[in-house]
# Entry
Amino acid sequence: MEKKFTPGPWKLDKWGSIVDSNGDTLKIVGVALPGFNNKEAVANRDLLFAAPELLEALEEIASGVFCDLKSVEDYAHKIIAKAYGKE
# Structure
């Protein structure tokens, strides 16, 4: 499947904006401006920040790359924590 989005890894810059591996701010439609830091906006940012890894995890799980359920669970918990901003 063709990937039309900015490839990860994504990171947060010192202003809390999501940037690509070159430090360029991602172009995202409908996202609040940097500095708009209410709890909902920050949670939404964290979820968007984790999107490339969430997709990668689903692709890996779907491909059958994991040998046991424990590995899948550990990987899922790591990526879910990132989506909740706990990484």
In short: The chain has one domain: 11-83.
